[in-house]
Amino acid sequence: MIILRDIELRRGSKLLLEGANVTLQPSQKLALIGANGSGKSSLFAMLLRQLQPDTGSIEGMSKLRLAHMAQEVAATRESAANYILQGDAELATLVQDLAAAEADGDFQRAASLHSAMEEADGYSAERRVHRLLQGLGFPANAAERPVSDFSGGWRIRLNLARALMTPSDMLLLDEPTNHLDLDATLWLEQWLQAYPGTLLMISHDRDFIDATCERILSIEGGQLQSWKGNYSDYERMRAEMLANQQASYEKQQVRIAHIEDFVRRFRYQATKARQAQSRIKELERMQQLAPAHVDSPFNFVFPPAGRSSDPLLRLDEADLGYGDQPVLSGVDLMLRPGSRIALLGKNGAGKSTLLKSLIGELPLINGRRQAGEHCRIGYFDQQQLESLDLTASAALHIQRLSPDAREQEIMNFLGGFNFRGDFATSAIAPFSGGEKARLALALVVWQRPNLLVLDEPTNHLDLDMRNAMEVALQGYQGALILVSHDRHLLRNTADELLLVHDGVVEEYDDDLRAYEKWILSSYRSSDKPEQGSAPAEAAPEASRKEKRQQAAAEREKKRPLQREITTTEKAMAAAEASMAALQEQLADPALYADDGKPELARLLKSEGELKIRAEQLEERWLELQQALEQLN
Predict the structure, then answer these.
(1) CA–CA gap between residue 291 and residue 148 (Å, rounded)
(2) Where are the beta strands (DSSP E) in 181-339?
(3) Which N-terminal stretch is annotated as signal sequence (predicted)?
(4) Is 244 exposed, middle or buried (0-12, 13-18, 19+ CB in 10 A)?
(5) Which end of the chain has less Cβ packing within 10 Å, N or C?
């Protein structure tokens, strides 16, 4: 059991935690959430004894074996397999000592070390290392390659594998899915579900949290709060708490206004002076409730793109790859206004190759790429962060794109991405990864693209920003094609799935949940899905083409229904909110006095009209759902 008592923590002049108390039970799986800069990484540093709290204490850590995922790794010539094995330091030492003893011909010592290896389950170590490499999406030859051969994102995966290899009672993971694709994310879910120790992880992937965690720790306003359940449970409970808090706050504000009005009118009248002083003391004693700040700091939309082409972009019989080595062959893809496509497939299958070919960064080997006259592409991937000018401000980045733009227009736009004041006008060198990702995304939005091409856009973004981006994409009127391991984003922004596998791109006729089940079943039956396997049985090319055409026709029939269902659901939600507000007004006792009768009559009439409207909407929604079910 780990107990944090009355923890206060400052970084410089900023107070991160104040009076924090929490107890972590053995074998619990917890997610630590909070806005960027709220203190999550500092709390990890305290648990790792790299940072001391200003006041308070941490109990129960002295005898625990800790494993954690480092965020950086030096470029070493050590092989990837040996680097991962070093996570189990005792076992790695045993392996080295055994090799040395056998090389020296010291067979008595070697026999003793063989016994120790057996006790430590050392003979399965190589198999475990290869499972970790496979599960996290490394290619087959990765084990023997030196660490220095891998790029930054792949080195982070090596750090994750090393942490998972470390024997531990408590595992600390900081954004473990940031550099994973969807398949590797699903594999990691399974691994963590079976982990027997205490898990504490920082994550902004809500589906990943839901699948792995049973409790949420949130840092909000310098307070550390514990919530029972996964992230979806946390959202529901926090919404209820904020609603109650807001109601209490508003009720108190009414009371404060009455008291202040009384004091203002009567404090200097002798007959009322004592009562006025009593009211002033009541105000001083009253605990000031903070209003519930439920609004996200992010609020942006994709502005209308203006003129468009139909189709915007197409590939015909295209072979895609590098040099004369095709990764994908015979690709036919048409992107039209309103297309919303997500790419699925294993790491290395060619998803990023397809995106780079679409934007024209990668020349086609064969075939044809045709862009519409009014096609304007907005492209985002993690390399965009590296192209930012660290000496320039966020505002200057925008100004370079649009020299004639007014300063206030730029500042208003950046405010929607939470770049305000000096934060918008100072050099971005000190920005975190998440802040740079926000700026790179803002630059894409500013250019008003009518075709968005997004490659893992949520990496480094916190939950508030992910939600804002999801809402903005839902309202985006152009075409969208994206790759992401964030299933919540995929489900809520894409209505068509393409599977990239075995050198081809084809429609995936099932839904995202079916794809997850296929991947997980593949990992259960073997440590990794077999190379070349696909979630559907092989079928003749003509049959597959007919199925694709039929599926496309069915989607076209469903699309108007789905749009009207979405519109109706929004109207139902608005009617429900209006009804709740109206009933709160009707709960005011003053309405039922004689002078309140006219207002009461008006509110009752509005209530009746709202009820009729809500019933009509519900009936229409049921009709639409029934029609959609018949098409299905």
Answers:
(1) 52
(2) 198-202, 215-220, 223-228, 313-322, 325-335
(3) none
(4) exposed
(5) C
Residue 567 C-beta-side C-alpha neighbours within 13 Å: 8
Nearest to 220 by CA among 378, 380, 389, 40: 40
**Residue 527 scores a pLDDT above 50:** no
- For the sheet with 325-335, list strands across it: 325-335, 313-322, 366-371
Report the C-alpha gap between 609 and 445 in whole angstroms. 41
| 537 — pLDDT class (breaks 50, 70, 90) | very low
> How many Cβ atoms sit within 10 Å of the Cβ of residue 538?
7
pLDDT of residue 280: 66
- pLDDT category of residue 282 using cuts at 50, 70 and 90: low
pLDDT of residue 291: 46
Closest C-alpha to 366, from 314, 330, 327: 330
Q: Which positions ≥6 away from 500 have C-beta within 8 Å?
A: 328, 343, 344, 345, 349, 350, 351, 354
DSSP string, 48-76: TTSS--SEEEEES-TTPPEEE--S-----
Note the pLDDT of residue 298: 76
When the pLDDT of each residue in the chain is averaged and rounded to a whole number, the result is 83
Cβ–Cβ < 8 Å for 298, 417: yes
Would 2-85+138-234 and 313-532 be classified into the same CATH topology? yes
Mind giving me the DSSP string for 214-232? SEEEEEETTEEEEEES-HH
Domain ranges in the chain are: 2-85+138-234, 241-285, 313-532, 562-631
Q: Please, which pLDDT band fits residue 531 given cuts at 50, 70 and 90? A: very low
Strands (E), 179-278: 198-202, 215-220, 223-228
Bigger pLDDT: 25 vs 383 = 25
Cα–Cα nearest to 345, from 497, 486, 517: 497
Using 50, 70 and 90 to split pLDDT, how confident is the model at 187?
A: very high
With respect to CATH, is domain 2-85+138-234 assigned 3.40.1550.10?
no
pLDDT at 486 over 80: yes
| Rounded Cα–Cα distance for residues 100 and 122 (Å) | 16
Q: What is the pLDDT of residues 213-241, one digit of tens each?
A: 999 999 988 889 899 999 888 888 877 77
Q: Which amino acid is at 449?
A: P
Compute, in degrees rounded to 10, the torsion defined by CA atoms 245, 246, 249, 254: -150
Paired strand residues for 32 = 202, 217
pLDDT > 50? residue 528: no
- Output the 3-class SS for 400-459: HHCCCCCHHHHHHHHHCCCCCCHHHHCECCCCCHHHHHHHHHHHHHHCCCCEEEEECCCC
Name the strand (E) or helix (H) holding 366. Answer: strand 366-371
Q: Kindly state the helix (H) or strand (E) to which residue 377 belongs, with its residue range.
A: strand 377-380
SS (H, E, C) 104-142: HCCHHHHHHHHHHHHHCCHHHHHHHHHHHHHHCCCCCCH
Helices (H), 510-586: 512-525, 541-586
Class of CATH domain 313-532 = alpha beta
The answer, as to whether pTM is greater than 0.85, is no
Tokens encoding 433: 């990864």
Are the CB atoms for 139 and 150 separated by under 8 Å?
no
